[in-house]
Amino acid sequence: MAQLAAAVIAVRQQHGQEMNLTGLPAADDFTGWLTPEVAVRTRPQASPVPSRPITPVRTRSILKAAAQLAGLVPAWRPLLSLPVTYRLLEVSDRSLSASTYLWPQHILLSDAAFDSQQALAELLLHEQCHQWLYLIEELWPLDLPDARRVALPSGTPNRAPREIIGAAHVAAATVRMYRAAGPNGTGATERIAFFAEYGRGCITLLDGLDSELTDTGSAVARHLQEAL
Hints:
By secondary structure, the protein is mostly helical. It has helices spanning 2-18, 30-33, 36-41, 56-72, 77-80, 117-139, 161-181, 188-207, 215-227; strands at 51-52, 85-89, 97-98, 106-109.
């Protein structure tokens, strides 16, 4: 994580110079360069998503879920330390959670995401996975410009190859989470089976899209295939 963060900081500093931004952190203020605010300011074509503030009570639930994830898979602890701003999705949005590359280090959760601690942990991991992959994409694109779009195994249409990689990444991480939780986890066996099948479906799609991926995208896809 330290090497990835250092590379991301260097890219953000370069973007800040190219965009003639003022009021950015000092060059050696590494913590400052990793804040969500600076991530957004230095992201070309940044686009915030309509959302609402989140309550302190729900923020504490999120922090508890993040701590549980770090306890299950200690290797995730440095990644979970990435500063993230949490917001609530608009009431009219039927999604359970959301993230976008164009609004980095922001995670949006629905009211329904807080129905249970297990649901919250799964959705939090889902969106954290996207944030981790966005850091890589900040350095290297995963697919080619104008890459062919296909439907996800779930049927969701018009998804770029990088989004298929993102879905496979979420599936692999969720399988790892439930395996780490052990057989006593609620519905763990069923969730492992579901996400393993879904992830393999994503990998099958990526096999047919290899010519649309960059070298980095192909390498990430191979690692995910091994994980699934």
